[in-house]
Amino acid sequence: MKLAHLWGFIVLFNTSCLCRAQLSEYFNERLSIKPLKDGKIASTLTFTTVLKNGTPRDPGLLHTEDESQHYRLFPLALGQILREYGVTEMHLTLNAGKWNYDSWGQPAEAGVGNGAELWAWIGDGALARNALAGLFCSSLGSLDELRTTSPVEVFRPEGSLPSSSLHQLRHASHPSESVCTENLTPFIKLLPCKSSAGLASLLNPHKLFDANWHGMGVHVLWHEGEGVEVRLTFQTVSDPLRSSFIRKQDWSLESLFGRKVEKACRAAGSSHIQVALPRNTPYNISPQPTVAENDEALYDIQAVNKPINVAMQYMQEFQRQDLPSSATLSIQRTLKESSQSHGQLSVILRNHQPNPVQAIYLETMPWIVQFYLHTLTATVNDIPQPSVFSNLSYIPAIPHSRPTTFHVLLSIPANSTLRLTMDVTKAFLRYTEHPPDAQRGWDLPPAIIYPLDQPRMYTPTLLVDLATPDFSMPYNVIIFTCTLVAFIFGSIFNLLTRKFVVVSVALKGRD
Amino acid sequence: MTSSLRAGVVIPTVAALKVAISLSGLPDLLRNDHQLSSPLTSFSQLQEGLYLFKHGIDPYSGGTFRHSPLLLALFSSVLPTSTLFAAVFWALSDAVAAWALVEIWRARQNVSSSTRDGLVALGYLANPYTILPSLALSTSTLENTLLLLAVMFAAQKKAAPSLLSLAFLSHLAPPAILIFPPLALLLLTDPHSHLASPQKLSLNKRRIFPLVLEFLIYAGALTFASTLVAGSWNWIPQTWGTWLTLPDLTPNPGLWWYFFTEMFDHFRPFFLMVFSMHLVIYVAPLCIKFQHDPLFALFILTGVLGIFKAYPTLSDPGLFLSMTAAFPEIFPYLRHPIVTSLLHLHAALLLPLFHHLWLTQGTGNANFFYASTLVFACANGAAVMDSLWAGMRIAIGKNTEDYGIVQE
């Protein structure tokens, strides 16, 4: 009897411990699907793991022994990197494609610049970058000091920052880095159910990388008093019109991801599919949503019958309409290249709002393209108006190392078009600095437009054509030039050192 | 009197003509031409630096601004930067340079005016290698003017203005410091032509030290003033350092840019050292060989600098070619003037053509332009060797039928 009591006590004690452990971490997953006005479907998978009351490591104490790490849901591989390098906030995105703000509006996750982008509030960034490159099988190692800037006005921390002043912003983007299956596999490994259950089972590389636009993101934030949050996201924009004979916007989980959700992930605290319902057009959604209100249907994966294949069917064919842009601003950025040494950068911003918009325009340009700020001109509706830009801040590039950071505050009048132009010069590189396919040109990172109090927007990337030397000739050039130098040197000293003598030509002739 | 008028007519006429051409819009086409202005002398870069300077951004905190802080101070306070003004200022600078060359010629002949004055002035003003950089508003034109002023004052025995000009010049373009020894010798001897009667220099060597000291004081003062303008010492690696480390590999008609574009990274510092030191080698031998005529040594050294300095523009070899006008006594003894002229013609046609083909048209590659810079260097080398030969050959006298002149 006493023994039974004791057992009961032990069991009770253990379960209470378990409960506390469960409370300290939780995992939520969500899929939101939204039809876009040009007929495409945007879907966003978000996996959030929160380490309750977790705190980031103080970058000042990196040399001391760290506390041991033990997690149930929180990804250990990532956690080790975060603690090793004292990362407080980190955002890594790997995207492929050009996000079309005019037709698709604002993305669910703001970081949609083409290629790789990494920004972090961190003690020292250089090594964390290599660790992340190893973790995600991505060439983040090339995000070196040639591409690293610190534009604090645009990349403010999304979570909280500890009061210690050791945190610095490190931002770098690498537009030629692409995202593919080898990046998705380590991404899936960070999830508690991997891709075997829950919404993560929809992460099917064949379909994801077939989408018109796709991008994955890893976000680490610290919320003071709450804990450390790791948010893994995967956004796609797929085109149902592309594959259907009748022009209908119909979609289903099968058509978007090639899979159904077979079972729920037990580790997930919540697991929802959220569908934005179309307006002004008849449709049929199956199965019956758990909740449907305010143009939104919600499925609770843990409650509904599985396997579940959410499907949307439209009654009518899709009609393309010329709707006004759904973004605050339309952005266009071009580089006109008159020759391989000079060019002109121009940015056109159209404000569709009936009220003026203030926006920060940020360029983080590798040193290979250098600005002539004295040629910076601004026109509003083709009328010169230099007063539209203010708060200009400029950190010039250092050849062969630091990139340019240029940002300026623009005020774009209501319903008007602002055009900024600036002459640029293109650098001539050492032959070892060119990439293997040098004639292809260099991808330039996207510029960022940051309308105040709104998510930032990315311009498309640019390709710049740099003059190339002949890569097969280093020996020949060294030999030719040295020969010429030696020839002139030799001739001059020959003249300077030898004596002039008069010889009889007549005598010579007789010999 | 009529003859001196000729120079007085030629210089203002050509200067006015130049302003007129400048206003026709041609300079906008030339301004960014790599052959007329290097990153260290380009007017666009100067304007960029001025823009940054006026907006409170340190132009020397990185970037590609490599002009002297003194030019910044000059153009941001005293001189306006409008294109019209710049055109006038550059034309004036050319006029002063031509006048200085005429004065050098007069001092060498020891006359107050001569019938060749106008020709000598035209030798500078009508030289396409000096006109085009001037139309492109390259600051290398100002450097040429400073050099000719330094030589002119030295020829007139005015030590202070001469050394100040040279200090200012070597502040803008440090390789010019190499012409200090012949310039000092010129100050201590005379500018007249002694090529025909070489003799050992008898000179109290102690008299050279005050000149060195004076030059160092001027150079130090200019350095200090630059630091005051720039607000820190950052400007030194950005301007002077560029000549030694060659961070900017923009093409130019010289020999360095493609060599260091194609250089293996582990040999780069070694060859940078070799190319920099190579320039120094010529100074002492030329000064010793032409100790009887330091002005001629200076002339040859200008030619050597025009071939081998780090960021040359067409105006550097152009200055050497223009200066030949002040040494007509060597003309009958030039060794192979036809070959040299043809080489120059060849290079003058190839350089702009291949530059255009490579960078604008995209139908040629870098080797085309590189090859034409080699031809150009050959042409300049041939011109230097011609003059050098003639300068020594002149001592032996006229050719006679039965005898030939050879070197042992």
TrEMBL record, chain A:
Gene Ontology BP term (one): attachment of GPI anchor to protein
Keyword tags: Membrane, Signal, Transmembrane, Transmembrane helix
Alphabetized InterPro entries for the sequence: PIG-T
Transmembrane region(s): 475-496
Signal peptide (residue range): 1-21
Pfam families: Gpi16
GO CC annotation: GPI-anchor transamidase complex
Protein name stated in the entry: GPI transamidase component GPI16
Annotated source species: Candolleomyces aberdarensis
From TrEMBL, chain B:
One GO CC term on file: GPI-anchor transamidase complex
Pfam families for this protein: PIG-U
Record key words, sorted: Endoplasmic reticulum, GPI-anchor biosynthesis, Membrane, Transmembrane, Transmembrane helix
GO biological processes: attachment of GPI anchor to protein; GPI anchor biosynthetic process
Entry membrane topology: Multi-pass membrane protein
Localization of this protein: Endoplasmic reticulum membrane
Main localization of the protein described in the UniProt heading: endoplasmic reticulum
TM region(s), chain numbering: 162-188, 208-236, 270-288, 295-314, 334-354, 366-385
Biochemical pathway: Glycolipid biosynthesis; glycosylphosphatidylinositol-anchor biosynthesis
InterPro entries reported in the protein's UniProt record: PIG-U
Family classification: Belongs to the PIGU family.
PANTHER family for the chain: GPI TRANSAMIDASE COMPONENT PIG-U, PHOSPHATIDYLINOSITOL GLYCAN ANCHOR BIOSYNTHESIS CLASS U PROTEIN
Protein name: PIG-U-domain-containing protein
Species per Swiss-Prot/TrEMBL record: Candolleomyces aberdarensis
